[in-house]
Amino acid sequence: xxxxxxxxxxxxxxxxxxxxxxxxxxxxxxxxxxxxxxxxxxxxxxxxxxxxxxxxxxxxxxxxxxxxxxxxxxxxxxxxxxxxxxxxxxxxxxxxxxxxxxxxxxxxxxxxxxxxxxxxxxxxxxxxxxxxxxxxxxxxxxxxxxxxxxxxxxxxxxxxxxxxxxxxxxxxxxxxxxxxxxxxxxxxxxxxxxxxxxxxxxxxxxxxxxxxxxxxxxxxxxxxxxxxxxx
Length: 231
Fold this sequence. Notes:
11-stranded mixed barrel, 11 strands, globular, single chain, Porin, mainly beta, about 230 residues
């Protein structure tokens, strides 16, 4: 219990120290992630995010993403996928931006390892971005690297931290950096919830975001087996 209270105090300290930079309001991201096993080696990634400039209002972005995962081994996963993103970029820190729609293809490799009680995850991702601004279109390429660390506190509670850097493969190299800290709860063996804080740093602005995430990883292999048996 003492460990949980100390962890709660740490997260609260991070949240309280977040400075209101960039946009004037503390925004929110509402997120769902799923890994749906369909065979021993393959699973389907599902994801949906709603991002707001303020608490659940003043729309910023809708992100829908899916992909096919190949589980090389328990500690290595390769993914190829697609994302659809609509963005309202018309806020004062980026006066030249306009609303956009984006079709995105991505390739990804996740590597996992454990050191003591700490679970490490390295995510390497390449993205091909096809953007439509209404009056013009653009194609951009980007590389991303995320280091995530998870610390189980009990069988139910855990802490989650990550830092992710975005590198443009054209124009200015640095795109953005995301620093994240959260407290998580394992609701069941395949369902967890996280609440945390994200500092999103761009070259010309910084944004503070509260995040609520739901991670649901159902195993669909039993369903496919029933269908094969005619049940």
